[in-house]
Recover the amino acids of this structure.
């Protein structure tokens, strides 16, 4: 018996998969060629932009509630890092931008407000009553990010 022909749907799926594989290979080779020909400043800009995007994504996922002051500060710090890296021909800013993004992401993961859900009701209520302590804690987080920005500026300039 001759082999069974593929159905129309099967042929379409195979053709679509082949087309997608071809497109992916073309895109991969184009990206490889572009990266091989980029100069150090373009590379620094690309890496710093990726770090800023990663920082923003980490900030967004870590804090689902309203935007906090520390979240805004970290996003601004990563944006400044990306800008400085794009202006820095010696690539000093690229590792600093990556560190700023990592610090911002770790700040949100350790100080996330979702950790309240893991505490007992008594602990949550006690914590909420002590608003002054909460305000001081938020200020400390803000100061840590401010110190990071100040350190970043001092190294760059």
């Amino acid at each position: 018996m001759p082999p069974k022909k593929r159905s129309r749907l099967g042929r379409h799926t195979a053709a679509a998969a082949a087309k997608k594989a071809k497109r992916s290979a073309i895109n991969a080779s184009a990206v490889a060629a572009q990266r091989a020909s980029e100069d150090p400043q373009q590379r620094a800009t690309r890496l710093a932009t990726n770090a800023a995007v990663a920082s923003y994504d980490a900030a967004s996922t870590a804090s689902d509630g309203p935007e906090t002051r520390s979240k805004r500060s970290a996003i601004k710090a990563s944006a400044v890092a990306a800008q400085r890296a794009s202006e820095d021909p010696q690539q000093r800013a690229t590792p600093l931008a990556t560190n700023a993004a990592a610090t911002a992401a770790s700040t949100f993961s350790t100080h996330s407000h979702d950790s309240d859900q893991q505490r007992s009701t008594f602990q949550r209520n006690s914590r909420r009553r002590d608003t002054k302590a909460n305000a001081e804690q938020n200020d400390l987080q803000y100061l840590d990010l401010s110190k990071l920005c100040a350190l970043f500026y001092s190294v760059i300039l």
The chain has two domains: 1-37, 40-156. The CA atoms of residues 148 and 155 lie 11 Å apart. The mean pLDDT is 64.
